[in-house]
Amino acid sequence: MIKFLSWSSIAILVCLVTWFSVNFYVSDSKPAASHFPYSISTNEKAGLEQKAALGDCDASTRLAQYYLYGALDVDAAVKQLRIAVRCSDVAPKEYLVNILMHNQDKPAVSAEIKILVDGIRKIDPEKATKLEDQLKARKESKP
User: Fold this and answer.
1) What does the alpha-carbon distance between residue 82 and residue 60 come to, in Å, rounded to a whole number?
2) How far is Cα 2 from Cα 18, in angstroms, rounded to an integer?
3) Residue 6 scores a pLDDT above 80
4) Residue 55 CA neighbour count, 13 Å, CB half
5) CB-CB contact of 104 with 90 (8 Å)
6) H or E segment to which residue 1 belongs
7) Is the dihedral of CA 126, 74, 110, 54 positive or negative?
8) Residue 65 in contact with residue 24, Cβ under 8 Å?
9) Any idea what DSSP says for residue 41?
10) What is the pTM of this model?
């Protein structure tokens, strides 16, 4: 279970929410269903869950947004992002790295982050380098 206990973790989460919101509103391909971009109906959620279970990356990413920013359920968001990262889109991989970096001192999490960054590097080497710099800075800033 991922826990955000420090103020720096809360600040990073706020930055992620803002960044995710801007990207969501700027996207032409997926207009918000309502004026609350992270709220979804029970029927829509059920449909997205069915699609996500079959490996639909868009559905998984949408559910991750809902769980992370609407329902405030980080564990469920991570579960959906782990489905979405199987596809070639960089964004879910980057979102997952940004969530997992709070626990990068754990060997299993560190290994998962390395795999994600390597996957990002194949698609966008510059973004992978920036993420590595962020991870290094975060690791160095911990006592």
Assistant:
1) 8
2) 20
3) no
4) 3
5) no
6) none
7) negative
8) yes
9) -
10) 0.69
Place of tokens 């826990």: 3
Token readout for 55 is 């490996």
Contacting residues for 53 by C-beta, under 8 A, at least 6 apart: none
The pLDDT tens digits of the residues spanning 8-66 come to 666 666 656 666 665 555 444 444 444 466 788 889 999 999 999 998 999 999 999 99
Strand ranges (E), 40-139: none
Radius of gyration of the chain (CA): 15
Is residue 62 within 8 Å of residue 41, measured between CB atoms? no
- Say what the pLDDT of residue 18 is: 67
- What is the token pair recorded at 126? 């510059």
Q: What is the mean pLDDT of the chain?
A: 82
Q: Which two tokens stand for residue 129?
A: 């380098």
